[in-house]
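**User:** Hello, beginner here. Are you able to go through the protein record under this note? It all follows right here:
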Amino acid sequence: MEPQRLTGPEARVLKYDVLTALSVAGLNGPPTFQTSMMRLMSLVTARYNWRKDEFCVGQRDMARMWSVNERTVKREIKRLLDAGLIICKRNGVRGRVGAYGLNYSAIVAVTAPCWPLVGPDFDQRMRDRYSQSEVKVVQLSAYVQSDPEKELGSSPGTWHHALAALATEHPNLVESWFSRLVYLGFEHGTLRLRAPSQFFQRYLETHHLPILLSAVEKELGPVDQVRFET
């Protein structure tokens, strides 16, 4: 997905469509994802430079806008970067404010399952505009609560121990994504999991599965395939 005429005659429609897609995807995601989408949308609506295709806002300004501290701002920016929704165009060093741009391809991957929820006209318009992304739509279902068994302690060679190891390196990913998976079993190289929804599953497979598999294989052994079950 590439930005199209974001400063031209059709720019207003394109901008509103991007914001609509982000907002509806956020409303259909877990709480942490909802918060991230709201914060990202506030930056886009208030401070995005569409001509340069970037926002350049200091951490203090973001903290004031979001009513949080600067430490939370750092975590949120890292979360958005890890999710691939934004890209760093210029690092902030020596007092210089960093610049970030929207990653339109990732936005398509994350929001496409939600386009039909807005309406058939919106869905068709987005498909026509970004047909090169080969978007596949899946149905959304309600998110469920975390599995109670995840509260149990972990020991080496277990799913829970793999999550505990991940939490030291990728705490945001564990909090927002991996902890919401239900472990069903591991047999003959097949890892069986249950995700809160097909939308959640599709996003996880597209963006975060390699990190998860790396940790799981250290505990359970080689994974030949991952099977998501309902």
